[in-house]
Amino acid sequence: MQTRKLGPFEVSAIGLGCMSLSHGYGPPAPREQAERVLKGALDAGYTFLDTAAVYGVGHNESLIGEVLGDRRNDYVLASKCGLTNGDKRELNGHPDVLKATCEASLKRLKTDVIDLYYLHRWDKRVPIEDSVGALAELVAQGKIKTIGLSEVSADTLRRAHAVHPITALQTEYSPWTRNPEIAVLQACKDLGVTFVAFSPVGRGFLAGGAMDASAFQEGDMRLGMPRFQGEAFAANLKLFEAFAALAKEAGCTPAQLCLAWLLAKDETIVPIPGTTNPDHMMENAGAAAITLSSEVMARVEALVNPQTVTGPRYSPAMQASIDTEG
Q: Is 55 a catalytic residue?
């Protein structure tokens, strides 16, 4: 697979988001299936894996450590802190909590160092400078190599970067979630920060994997997201029909169209689609070889954008927990 720069690292142009193997969209994937996805991803050329302490409250990190511990040198490892406190989910950016979370993550991941360690959410009760300062101490101690931020604004990124260089900023970005275009993408370019796009296929929707909201299982976060509810969902289904037709015309799948669109937007963007399906993992990898014409790029953006997508991406409560523009 083609590669892109991620701070001091060279990583596959498309990374693997590992969250869904443990939580987020229903029950965890069966162990054998999760192993096929993880091992298959490395065999397919993925060299960038993304996890977090909060995913399954440790389950996801333990899974990666157990399944891929003997292949640690084959991938750049990203994990996150700030949404757990011990064995419970809690937004907490206190320096002592972040450091303790890192220690627990290192054990679960069966590694001596985490390559990229994100502050998963900014706890606004704690100055961003204090939280990033704690991560800088972990860099100095050799427990993490680089620092990232997730779901923050351009202003917060700049404040954090003044404390310690930020390697990557991660937030949701796809044809149907475009708020990074307001300010944070430009801030990343200004500072030399890689932009990591999570949910790059619209939480499965723009891949055709979320056509029936009644099929979502207990624990599926989409049940609480406005775009997947009622009239908004019905309107968005009509939008997907046109998007799928455009993908067919472009000679790729809808998921590949999303990923190729992101890769074409800027060479500093690295999308990290997640899946529990080994075939979908391979399909996503194939997007790295797709080149879209300027005409197709323009048609994607005219079809799926903030004016045509119905409903906000988060509920008001979830929106209050993040720091992004828009």
A: yes
